[in-house]
């Protein structure tokens, strides 16, 4: 695994129906060394902090392997940052990414996976297709949020070491699939809430299921 691109955005206006909203989803690749703090890429814009950002969702990761799949589905090449991710990596790994897995980037930065990305209307508007949220959900390729365990400086091309959790935590895909069901499976709720999942996701799961951690 290795880091292909580090992406950041400035606040940009986005048209959704008859409304104009501000978004930080238009990520563009950065060059050279980039500082990663506990809140993510320094200088990046996060507008809707109710569902994005914070210490537990400091960075959003997406893989080139999934980009290849999407390019075939959408009929064209997609550049890094298209899905609003901060870090574009070569692949997640041969297995299934879990909440609590850690990724060491280069010699300095250490991340912990905390939640899948849940698509919203801003994402659909950015992709120019109001039906894209349903397509993204059906694809079950959500990418992952991560918290920064150790901050530092990274640059594109850095190697990534995957450190799988030894705990039986919920997988990113499992949480994503359950998120879009009418009702959560009790075992899935237990595994998700037992994991080091993000505070934002934890709060939403507890509210929807009535189960408290």
UniProtKB/TrEMBL annotation:
Name this polypeptide is given: MOSC domain-containing protein
Organism field: Gilvimarinus gilvus
One Pfam family matching this protein: MOSC
Listed PANTHER family: PROTEIN YIIM (PTHR30212:SF2)
Domain named MOSC: residues: 28-163
């Amino acid at each position: 695994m290795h880091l292909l691109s580090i992406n950041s955005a400035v606040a940009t206006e986005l048209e959704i129906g008859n409304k104009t909203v501000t978004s930080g989803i238009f990520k563009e690749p950065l060059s050279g060394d980039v500082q990663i703090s506990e809140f993510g890429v320094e200088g990046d814009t996060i507008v809707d902090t109710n569902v994005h950002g914070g210490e537990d969702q400091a960075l959003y990761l997406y893989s080139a392997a999934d980009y290849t799949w999407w390019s075939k589905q959408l009929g064209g090449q997609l550049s890094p940052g298209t899905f609003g991710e901060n870090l574009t990596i070569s692949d997640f790994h041969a297995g299934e990414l879990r909440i609590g897995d850690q990724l060491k980037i280069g010699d300095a930065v250490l991340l912990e996976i905390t939640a899948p990305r849940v698509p919203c209307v801003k994402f659909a508007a950015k992709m120019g297709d109001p039906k894209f949220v349903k397509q993204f959900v059906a694809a079950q390729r959500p990418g992952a949020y991560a918290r920064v365990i150790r901050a530092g400086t990274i640059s594109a091309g850095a190697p990534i070491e995957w450190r799988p959790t030894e705990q039986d935590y919920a997988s990113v895909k499992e949480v994503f699939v359950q998120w879009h069901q009418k009702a959560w499976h009790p075992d899935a709720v237990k595994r998700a809430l037992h994991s080091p999942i993000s505070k934002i996701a934890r709060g939403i799961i507890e509210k929807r299921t009535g189960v408290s951690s």
